[in-house]
Specification:
The complex is a heterodimer of chains A (about 160) and B (about 400).
Chain A (H helix, E strand, L loop, with lengths): L7 H25 L11 H30 L5 H23 L8 H27 L5 H17 L2
Chain B lengths: L1 H15 L4 H14 L4 H25 L3 H44 L3 H18 L2 H12 L4 H9 L3 H6 L12 H15 L2 H13 L7 H29 L10 H47 L13 H19 L4 H26 L3 H4 L6 H27 L6
Helix pairs in contact in B: 1-6, 1-11, 2-9, 2-11, 2-12, 2-14, 3-9, 3-10, 3-11, 3-14, 3-16, 4-5, 4-10, 4-12, 4-13, 4-14, 5-12, 5-13, 6-12, 7-11, 7-12, 9-14, 9-16, 10-12, 11-12, 12-13, 14-16
Classes of the chains: A mainly alpha (about 160), B mainly alpha (about 400).
């Protein structure tokens, strides 16, 4: 009998299981720990992926805002509906921009990051302007609609 | 005449009650990103829900007892508890999503932030669950849900290239920009939305509430085999509208307001108003159904009196569960969590919980002690077994696909 009161083979098996579990736990912690940092290491592939996601999301929100203004201008929706749709688009476009801005750009993507963030910033500003127009009931500002159209195209083109 | 009216009413409420927040959001998302290339999943889901709803309805009609009541007795308390926990958590999650959906629908009418509306919606749902008659809940909200037919009318008005829509039905027509993993993730989500577990709990418990007998099996089958597929067509219409308006524009659906925009484009203000009424009815009706299903499942498992036909004083535990579930749902939504995100999570977890719900139904439907001569025939069993395999594959694939695709973001 061992000191634990178990038969020796059982104690040895329990000890072996304990060792295996400890090694597995250390391994899991070792694999996961680097991902738990507050700021992740610059990684070109991860940045590219997030940039594509943010650009696609922003383009989608810009197109949504444009469609909402157009349908409201044709009196196909009521003011509250158009306002809610554009306000949600503004919120989501802002989130898309923040998601990318939070990620530290790797050195080799510094120039691209500045261009993409400028583009996203312009998109967010235009959707915010669209929201202001929707709140005021000014749905047929053709200059704004053209700008939304242009920026949506630029966002789609910039998405790698 | 009265019997024909009952059949018609049952079919209409089955159509109107088929779509809930999960179907609205998931079908629009899928249509906007994948066109009609995932419509086959809706068809597979509709056949599956028909098969198992018919079984659970038959069980209720012949044994006069509901699903959980029999699962515990037939498969033992351990299996019953596993079934209860898995299915009830998903139903509660769906209940939260539905209450959030009602608030979002009301936000589209008055632009009042949905968080301000949530407490009133929760209170209204609870009052309806406490005071309204079962038939009133089912019929009024089911019939109002028919307003969603406006999606089919809008699709016709939008005048899509029908040949292109039909050609897009093949999975091979998936947009090239979307990966197969994302495609599979949305297939699982769509399947989970179509086969949500609460639908069979509500259906079978409702059968017990309405005191179905073997004589009602024909009417029940008409409701299931005509009403559900027609309800499924509404899901397809939602996806096709999104495919027609959003796919060419590169718009991804993330809000309930976006779901209604194609109808505004196709039908204008009146059509949109009808659809928003449909949003309200579909989500409010589903909130009542999921709320009741939470109460049904717990009360049936623990064996205390339940149901809308029992006086609240006699079914105090049942009504207390409804109250607690409503408070939990409102509390979760008031943390500021996005109801659409809750919906997206709920349909995926529905897929995970499917085997826990449908396996016991298949077992009980084969037990002559409960069903006598009405046990499953070879066709029902063959289809049921095939679906169990499909359901198990979907359940096993759900979490890996959710992780790999970052909830379908690609």
């Amino acid at each position: 009998m061992s000191r634990t009161g178990r038969p020796a083979p059982l104690a040895a098996a329990a000890g072996f299981r304990g060792t295996v579990l400890t090694v597995a736990l250390v391994g899991v912690v070792g694999v996961l720990a680097p991902g738990c940092g507050i700021v992740s290491r610059p990684d070109a592939a991860a940045w590219d992926q997030q940039a594509q996601r943010s650009l696609t999301d922003a383009a989608s929100q810009v197109s949504t805002a444009r469609l909402a203004l157009e349908t409201a201008a044709e009196r196909r929706t009521w003011p509250a509906y158009a306002t809610v749709v554009v306000a949600k688009a503004e919120e989501a476009a802002g989130t898309a921009e923040e998601d990318l801005a939070r990620l530290q750009a790797p050195p080799q993507r510094a120039d691209a990051a500045a261009t993409v963030l400028d583009l996203l910033d312009e998109a967010v500003s235009l959707v915010a302007e669209a929201r202001a127009h929707a709140v005021e009931g000014r749905y047929d500002d053709s200059a704004l609609l053209d700008d939304l159209d242009r920026i949506a195209g630029e966002l789609e083109q910039a998405a790698p | 005449m009265k019997r024909y009216f009952a059949v018609l009413l049952g079919i209409l409420t089955a159509i109107g009650g088929f779509v809930d927040i999960g179907d609205l959001v998931t079908n629009a998302q899928v249509g906007a990103r994948f066109g009609t290339s995932l419509v086959w999943v809706v068809l597979v889901g509709v056949v599956g829900i028909c098969v198992f709803a018919e079984m659970s309805g038959r069980i209720a009609a012949v044994s006069h007892r509901a699903t959980f009541d029999l699962v515990r007795e037939r498969l033992g308390p351990r299996m019953g508890l596993l079934n209860l926990v898995g299915s009830m958590l998903v139903t509660l999650l769906t209940f939260i999503a539905e209450i959030g959906g009602v608030a979002l629908a009301l936000q589209l009418v008055g632009s009042v932030h949905h968080l301000l509306v949530v407490p009133f919606v929760a209170a209204a749902v609870w009052i309806v669950l406490w005071r309204a008659k079962f038939s009133a809940i089912e019929n009024v909200l089911g019939l109002l849900g028919l307003a969603l037919i406006a999606f089919a009318v809008a699709l016709w008005q939008l005048g899509p290239d029908w040949g292109e829509l039909a050609a897009g039905l093949s999975p091979a027509e998936k947009p090239a920009a979307e990966g197969w993993a994302t495609y599979a993730f949305f297939a699982v989500a769509l399947f989970g939305a179509a086969m949500t577990p609460y639908e069979v709990f509500f259906f079978s418990s409702g059968g017990v509430e309405e005191r179905w007998t073997s004589k009602d099996i024909g009417v029940m089958r008409a409701n299931v085999f005509i009403g559900f597929p027609l309800g499924g067509l509404l899901s397809v219409a939602i996806a096709a509208c999104a495919a027609t308006v959003f796919l060419p524009e590169g718009i991804a659906v993330e809000t309930l307001g976006q779901v209604g925009l194609p109808v505004a484009v196709g039908l204008g203000k009146i059509g949109l108003a009808v659809v928003v009424l449909g949003f309200f009815a579909a989500t409010f009706g589903a909130a009542c159904e999921t709320g009741l299903s939470t109460g049904y499942s717990l009360a049936q498992y623990f064996g205390f009196p339940w149901g809308k036909y029992v006086r609240p004083r006699e079914a105090a535990g049942f009504h207390l569960i409804l109250l607690i579930a409503t408070v939990i749902a409102a509390g979760v939504l008031l943390t500021g969590v996005d109801p659409i995100m809750v919906t997206e999570v709920s349909v995926v977890f529905s897929a995970i919980a499917l085997p826990l719900t449908y396996f016991p139904i298949l077992v009980v439907a084969n037990d002559p002690d409960y069903l006598g001569e009405h046990v499953n025939g070879p066709v029902a069993n063959a289809i049921g077994v095939v679906y169990l395999v499909v359901i198990t594959v979907a359940a096993l694939a759900a979490i890996p696909l959710m992780v790999v695709t970052s909830m379908g973001q690609g």
